[in-house]
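hiii, so i know i said id send this last week but things got crazy w the move. better late than never?? heres the sequnce for the chain we talked about at the cafe, plus the structure i predicted for it. fair warning i was half asleep when i ran it
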Amino acid sequence: MKCMYCQGEMKKSVAPFHVDREGCHLTLDKVPALVCTQCGESYFEAAEVDAIQDIIQAIEKKTQALAV
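okay and structure toks below
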């Protein structure tokens, strides 16, 4: 598989993920990903994206209970 950005080779590895949502900051240090050996661009596969979305939805649901 080639990187969409620079056409470098993609290799299975891990990559960080960070998102800020409605006052919450989620940082995952090591998420399985395909990482370009040339430019470092990372791509998450569907299973990892689904898991990240589940985590974000759970956080949003729990933080709604804290809203004043």
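btw Residues 46-64 form the longest helix (19 residues). thought thatd interest u
miss u guys!!
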